[in-house]
Amino acid sequence: MTKPRSIRFRLTASYTLVFALTFALIGIAVWTALEHSIQETADRELRTRLTDVKRYVDSFTPDDFRHLEEEFREESLLSQSVANIRIADPQGHWLFRTASAERWPDIKPAGNYQTIRVGHAKIRLLTSPIRVGTVQIGLNIDEFEEVKDGFLWTIGLGSPLLLMIAAMGGYWMSGRALRPVDQISNAAAQITAQDLSARLPSSGTGDELDRLSSILNEMLRRLQSAFQRVTEFTADASHELRTPIAVIQTTSELMQSRPRTADEHLAAWSRVRSETERTSNLISDLLLLARSDANKSDLDFHSMDLAETVCSAVDEMRVMADAKGLSLSINAPAACVIQGDPAALRRAVCIMLDNAIKFTPVPGSVSVKVSQGAQALVTVTDTGVGIAEQVRPLIFERFYRVSKDRSRQTGGSGLGLSIAQSIVKRHQGDIKVESVPGKGSTFAIVLPIRH
Ligand code: ADP
Q1: Quick one: which of 339, 342, 347, 285 has its CA closest to 316?
Q2: Residues of the chain with pLDDT > 70: what percent?
Q3: 332 in ligand 1 pocket by Cβ < 6 Å?
Q4: What mean pLDDT, rounded, does the chain reach?
Q5: Bridge-partner residues for 368, per DSSP?
Q6: How far apart are the first and last CA of the chain?
Q7: Nearest CA owner, ligand 1 atom 2
Q8: Does the pLDDT value for residue 74 go beyond 70?
Q9: 3-state SS of 261-274?
Q10: What string of DSSP letters covers 314-352?
Q11: What residue owns the CA closest to ligand 1's atom 23?
């Protein structure tokens, strides 16, 4: 396989080729025009002379031709330029020939005009009938030929030089145009997964390469923040997993350190069980998020009644609300049919109810409403602690908890709302939050209606 040529080489070669072609076309055009103009000038000259000669000799009888040369000379018709004349009678016998015309070959006239060679000289010949027979007038066109030769020489010698200059110019120009590409590749070579903070140079000219630079920089910025999120997520996940495992380890070590009573064993086992459950839930949550990140959704979409799904979620969470002493009410007056996965949407509603119950002190209430307009709407309103405005956008981030201490007591890992949002987004919906700190919050799931 041949090694691909550099863009600079290819640009230079194309530029030189285009230049050479243009130059050749111009050369051919000039050459054709020159030749045409030379011939036109010579023929015009011959026609003028023919008119003069005709006017003079038409009144002659064949006998008069013996003295014609003297006559011509007297009339200055045999000046240098008209020195080439010969006249023949209808049988082809020469009635008159000037000295130089004697050397012309006997030729058959091919049309009115023709070019003949006599020795080294080139003669343009005009043949025309006159009263006594035929006249031929010749014009030496060597001078014109010299002009043409001169032109050829100039083109022949000048073109390699011009092509060389064009190639050098093209090489220089393409080098200049491609310099930013080199700078971009050098800068890009420095960027590694460990350090995504470097940026490509930008000339600020707004040209194509500058635009490419800014597009790549924008992509790098997005990559950097995605990378950072993944790193943080991994660190948070490891941290969250370490805590229950540490608890399990310490508990079992304590149990083994000395003989324990049956009650102590029971308490230890129940602790180990709850931490194992916590770890297992956390791992399922992480798996669910990872699958949804990888677009490997196992959601099963079909026509479903959202009101029914929400009612069953409320029923499930009622035990928790009752245990805490909170009132939990639902208002779902009519069926609300959408395309969705009931189990996933049930999970999203449960997450919200779980939060509402966790973050609402007694006495308090949680109310759920399902309604249908242009879109399907599920709202979960509580009279809880509320969420400060500045942290509201953060609560959907993975592992984010407004108060880590309280969440630890309530058992939250900070993944609930991320999961709920991921489920709703997969249904082409959205979650909106309104909250007054100290008074309560309303979470609204908005879903498109598609039967
Ligand atoms: P967690 O597992 O801690 O519940 P979430 O992702 O579900 O995690 O919620 C993130 C944080 O948002 C919670 O830790 C809590 O601080 C806040 N939050 C969520 N729902 C409510 C609510 N109804 N009232 C007050 N704060 C809430």
Answers
A1: 347
A2: 91
A3: no
A4: 87
A5: 330, 380
A6: 58
A7: 412
A8: no
A9: CHHHHHHHHHHHHH
A10: HHHHHHHHHHHT-EEEEE--S--EEEE-HHHHHHHHHHH
A11: 356
